[in-house]
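Notes to self after the Tuesday call (sharing in case useful).
The group wants a holo model before anyone commits to mutagenesis around the pocket. I volunteered. Ligand is NAP. Logging inputs and output together so the record is complete.
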Amino acid sequence: MSKSIKIGLFGFGVVGQGLYNVLKQTTSINATINKICVKDKSKSRNVDSNLITFDKNDILNNPDIDIIVELIDNADEAYEIVKTALKNKKSVVSANKKMIAEHLEEFYDLQKEHGVSLLYEGAACGSIPIIRNLEEYYDNDLLTSIETICNGTTNYILTKMSEEGLEYSEALAGAQKSGFAESNPRLDVMAFDPKYKIAILLAHAFGLFVHEKDVFNFGISNVSNFDFQYAAKNNASIKLIAGAYKKDNVVKAYVIPKFIVASNMFYNVKNEFNAVQLEAAFSDKQFFYGKGAGAFPTASAVLADISALHYQYKYEYKKHFSDTSISFSNDVVLNVYIRYKEKSQLEKLEFESIDEQHTINQTNYIIAKVKLKSLIKNDVNEWQDFFVAAF
Ligand SMILES: NC(=O)c1ccc[n+]([C@@H]2O[C@H](COP(=O)([O-])OP(=O)(O)OC[C@H]3O[C@@H](n4cnc5c(N)ncnc54)[C@H](OP(=O)(O)O)[C@@H]3O)[C@@H](O)[C@H]2O)c1
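Result:
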């Protein structure tokens, strides 16, 4: 039997406790948690008190600990922990998409410099094994696009609006009540969370380190029943899609609500579920579907990473070296529906064409070809009474 892996765990919230329970229930992996570092001294913990520490150095400088699993909810503090761990030559598993998307290139350098590994399958699409698949399986295939519904909160809200005719505020309140949305849902509903995930996936799909700040995100906080009525008339629903598309060695990536017709596989991805669709030259379309969040689904991805560290698995970021001719660009023209309040909003944007212009019951919308760069320049994610969705 292989040597037992001794884990130092940061965070004992939803995912940390999920991992603790999953490790107790599985015999497939020989690993034990040696220490758990948490923050709040006043909380009672349903775990042996000898395991708990409030001092990160009890894990970071502990020679008995083989690997570090970082599952805290603060990206800046997580960054310090992960950086120190890698410098101390400890391999790390994390599910912190914000932190990874913000520092991926630096982490890549640190892994190389210190000969250790940082794995983060749980950071993108929870239980769906997409990162290692992109790393290993699609290495020699001609991947042309990756699209994903990777935010359960927004998918839950959009499903309730589409199927039950709820207003946005009602659907959000329902999502919060059912535990699918945070009390401060900004990172989800403004589409920052899926932007972090597609930024991470870009490194493994196309070998590109793109800072998350350079990827456009437009969320669902302004979506209305009017937009769903328009979608229904076109036999479609609205889904928040994070996508990356390669053509002639240029990759374009953005997160935007999209009209998804009933024949599209994403149409039936409902509520909190996630999905990924890859398209490659010879294999054509492939579809992955599963749970993108939650204690056990996320812990299962973390567990798979811990297991991979058993055999010294590392992401090699092979595509980063093998095809250096690929570049990232926001030079895109999108086919869109735009609902707007003031004409002055449209005047700030750049269009290739405005193909239709309508006003129904005092609500204005256009069908147009808009330059993505003009949406980015105007920070339209922050505009009131403005909604854009792509076809
Ligand atoms: N929840 C999900 O379904 C899900 C899915 C995919 C990825 N993730 C990612 O997984 C990570 C954890 O999420 P979660 O939902 O488990 O969070 P959570 O339930 O809010 O728990 C966060 C934990 O982090 C601890 N913590 C915060 N700052 C700390 C610090 N400086 N040092 C030590 N411990 C600290 C907290 O300690 P106290 O207990 O003392 O407050 C708490 O135990 C996040 O990066 C999240 O984005 C979550």
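Two things stood out.
The pocket of NAP is lined by residues 10-16, 37-40, 43, 71-74, 77, 95-97, 122, 126, 293-294, 298 (CB under 6 Å).
DSSP finds 14 helices and 17 strands in the chain.
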